[in-house]
Design a protein that fits this description.
Order of helices and strands: HHHEHHEEHHH
Structural class: mainly alpha
Strand order of the largest sheet: 1-3-2
Number of strands: 3
Radius of gyration: 21 Å
Distance between the termini: 58 Å
Amino acid sequence: MDSERTGGASTTVDAENLAFDVFARACPSRGTLEHVTGKWGGLILGALHDGTFRFNELRRRVDGVSEKMLSQTLHALERDGLVHREAQPTNPPRVDYRLTPLGSAVAERLLALIHLVEDRMPEVLTAQERYDTTRVGSGEAAARDAGRAVVAGRGGR
């Protein structure tokens, strides 16, 4: 049993008898949670909740994701059993991605969080403004704004 929890030599895992604890360092649920809640994982799962997508369709839907990150994230989500990849034997090859039933359940919960954040953005922006305003006196905001100006100056070159 300990080898199952720690990834030892055992090749079969009786997952129903394991107690998973995402707060434990060695728990395998931590990696899956990271895949789901990472920047691209959450967005990809949310996009796939709308239906089946080909790679480039999904890349356009998840604005800003690189081919490399999309590919890596899809592989991780497929390995976790959240995404199904279906390669069709056509010329050129066609690969479709869709959520598995588990992926759909996870995506629904993620979308609830996404919609909550989107709906409450006015409050978030107000809180950010209030935070930034109160930090001006301590010099934090001035230093941060100066850093932004330097970065913005480099971007134009």
